[in-house]
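This section describes the prediction task in plain terms. A model, or a person checking by hand, is given the sequence of a single protein chain and must write out its three-dimensional structure as a string of tokens. No templates, partner chains or ligands are provided. The sample shown here is typical of the held-out split.
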Amino acid sequence: MRLLKFDPMAKIAINLTTASIQQEEVIVGIDLGTTNSLVAYMHPEDRAAIAINDQGLGTIVPSVVHFGENGEAVVGNAAKDYLITDPANTIYSVKRLLGKSYQDLGAHKDFFGYKIIDDNSEGLVKIRVQDRFYSPIELSAEILKELRARAEHALKTPVNRAVITVPAYFNDSQRQATRDAGKLAGLEVLRIVNEPTAASLAYGIGLEPTEEKTIAVYDLGGGTFDISILKIHQGIFEVLSTNGDTYLGGDDMDRAIIEHWILGNRLVADLAAQDANTAQALRLKAEEAKKALSSQETFTAELNGVTLELDKHTFETLITPIVDRTMTSCRMALQDAGLAPEQIDTVIMVGGSTRVPLVYQTVSDFFGKPANNSLNPDEVVALGAAIQADVLAGNRKDILLLDVTPLTLGIETMGGLMDSIIPRNSKIPTKAGRQYTTSVDGQVNMKISVYQGERDLVKENRKLAEFDLKGIPAMPAGFPKVDVNFILNADGILKVEAIELRSGVRQEVEVKPQYGLTDEQVEQMLMDSITHAREDVSTRMVIEARTTAEQMIYQVERFLEKNGEHLTSEEINLTRQNVQHLKEVLPTGDKDTILKAVDVLEEQTSPFAERVMQISIKKAMTGKKIE
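The expected answer:
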């Protein structure tokens, strides 16, 4: 199996920015961040990675999306202004929702100021904005569209291909969601790259095939912290361990400053309680103080006639607990990797919050060597992604690319959808898997159909194999846990295994290399996936909405049968009306109409389960003495 170089848009173009002739269109590198995002490219003449600054707007694009009354999306700084004035229609931190179900959010459900649907299932979350429903994939696509538009405007050339970075701890579902977002934004995602790997490439680490190093990448952003320990050997980046906190960053430093001001001055406390706009202005002053005290000893400012003061010593005292939490993660990451601090060859600093001198000094002291912060910490991940893109474009002849799989491999799920297990361009050998469950009560067999291709519907892809997992113990729908694993070896031989975890029932099948496709057939499949990308994603979302609705109907009707005695006749009638309405809108094929009906039914019935549980507990405890 070999890497197929396929460019359906291949043509000679003149880049008006550099006045140079391009044989191929630009492949950009994208850092799709929780707080901010960036896009970068490799300059064709001096071979330097450059973060794109379109029309002087700055390189950073806040990862915020606002929807106006007509449903039109605004992304970036313009959207950020609506976080206070229109929070219900302004989406932020969407990266935290990628590939997640409502149940995954756990204690962080109240963190988000916008409406997230709880459909009482393990399905992926959906966000309600006015009367429309968006998946995190669609919202991430809006950010990627903005980045793509800025790149095309700045470079005066089409941008259709990209490398996108993700955290090292992202699982397969989150990585596939990132790929889908790229596809929806009109981008062919050539590779998903770990953020610490990209940062390493930006510093030139790993570009030399003979280089062997163990490095630590310390990434402290506005809202998240990650520490990754990497081993680099012959151009291969191996993640030894990763640790961190998805709710820890520079925002916590700002909050510590605000609390200090409030406790020390009643007038500031009055300001904070005045209104949302003033509170937001106070937060911006705290952010200003944090940045100022990175290069000066004192900070003084005025807000609505109130003086705000802070000195560097007090600031560092306030943030020491925050920095200490990051060092706890560093210790745990080293412990998981089985290494001591002195065994780390290089420490790389990533993220805007690493500009704080106390952070830099603490990290350097912990690892016993000066950390490397010579590159812009906001841009370093995007720059590394641009270098990886340059490698994929074939412009770096000194770097050996490992063999990759030419087409996505996956299985069929409900509604005839293709669920990707191993995305195309994944390095081989590789192993990936997903967990599935049954859709009806008492299901004892599960058909596993293996497909290859880039389309969202299996009927548009090529079927490779099919087998039945038999002997699943009869259980209620959703209880069985079936792991489906794809193991692709260096020869391109794919082994698919399915295991029901509760019973240990197992079945597997082996598929031979190349799968009988010519290069021309592979290219045609890729071309079709690009041509039909938007159509495919729209179809997938309608099917997913219908599947969610059908599962909701099944669950509610079963609940009424078993627990109707605990409901009033009015509640039963209203529930049946809402179920009937949901059944009537199912054939419309309108995703938003279907999901709105699901939302109405879910909100109406969600108190029922709690009531029945309380009645069951009361019955169980009757006559029992608690000691």
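For orientation: The longest strand covers residues 236-245.
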